[in-house]
Write a structure and sequence with these properties.
mainly alpha; disordered N terminus; 12 helices
């Protein structure tokens, strides 16, 4: 038969690296050595359909899709069971504490660098990112103040299932000799907790019951030492430099977008909940 060379995938991803699910997609792309374009400005068609929901991805020009577990499976990762996905989601407890310190929260988003080759796109996406951080901050506080999610007595408890899984695997990673979906998704959660420090990070660093999990994190650091969106490297061994921060122009544009969202509060607040409603519809 005729041999046809398989062309490399062309992948576009929209989202902020502070999201664990965006992290999962980016980690998968890095693990699979697939080149990609990371966009911080939502594509117009996905903004109309899902608001600022992230991640969304387009593979080889196909329609944009938004379910991170399905995206990473299409990029070559093993499918994850519903039980394991539930355990991954449970490890996200404490995320609402990201908004406890507004200055630290907004400064973290300000440091995100848009690496687009277009100066105009970098400027517009930085302004847009100001609104996205306002959106996230508003929703986190709504959940925290209105829904009042219960909190565990010890945030380390949510990681015991993964401590046991790692110790039972006898391999460098949860899924064997190379990272699988469980490794990728859980490591995305770790990046989320590390990018804007929350109480679960303290448990991950100090809980004596989680020595195996810290060994797993060290293995992931070795595996992803060249990954450019790693936040946990500031906290865990082996230490890895944090992502390169945005320049002054991008940060200035970001704060302009943020202040505009705050000043326009009577309009921006309803917009947050309208877009949140779109994000919930699938």
């Amino acid at each position: 038969g005729i041999f046809v060379k398989k062309l490399p995938l062309k992948v576009q991803v929209y989202g902020a690296s502070h999201s664990p699910w965006v992290q999962a997609v980016l980690l998968t792309l890095h693990e699979q050595s697939i080149e990609y374009e990371l966009r911080q400005l939502a594509p117009f068609e996905t903004f109309l359909r899902w608001g600022v929901y992230m991640p969304t991805a387009s593979i080889d020009g196909a329609p944009w899709e938004r379910e991170s577990t399905e995206i990473i499976a299409k990029l070559g990762m093993n499918p994850i069971s519903s039980e394991d996905l539930k355990a991954v989601n449970a490890a996200w407890q404490g995320v609402v504490h990201r908004s406890d310190n507004p200055f630290r929260f907004f400064a973290a988003f300000a440091r995100d660098a848009d690496v687009s080759t277009s100066a105009w796109r970098r400027l517009v996406s930085s302004i847009y990112r100001g609104f996205v951080s306002f959106y996230m901050f508003t929703l986190l506080n709504f959940v925290k103040l209105k829904l009042k999610p219960p909190e565990p007595e010890n945030f380390g408890d949510q990681y015991l299932v993964w401590e046991n899984e790692f110790n039972a695997s006898r391999s460098p990673f949860l899924d064997g000799d190379t990272p699988g979906s469980r490794d990728i998704l859980l490591f995305g959660i770790i990046q989320c907790h590390s990018s804007i420090s929350v109480p679960p990070l303290t448990s991950l660093l100090n809980d004596e019951r989680l020595n195996g999990l810290r060994t797993w994190i060290a293995n992931m650091h070795e595996r992803f030492k060249d990954f450019s969106h790693l936040y946990s490297g500031r906290h865990f061994e082996p230490r890895i430099p944090p992502p390169k921060p945005a320049g002054l122009i991008q940060q200035g544009a970001y704060y302009f977008g943020l202040l505009t969202s705050i000043v326009a509060f009577p309009a921006s607040l309803p917009l947050v909940f309208i877009l949140a409603g779109r994000a919930r519809r699938k």
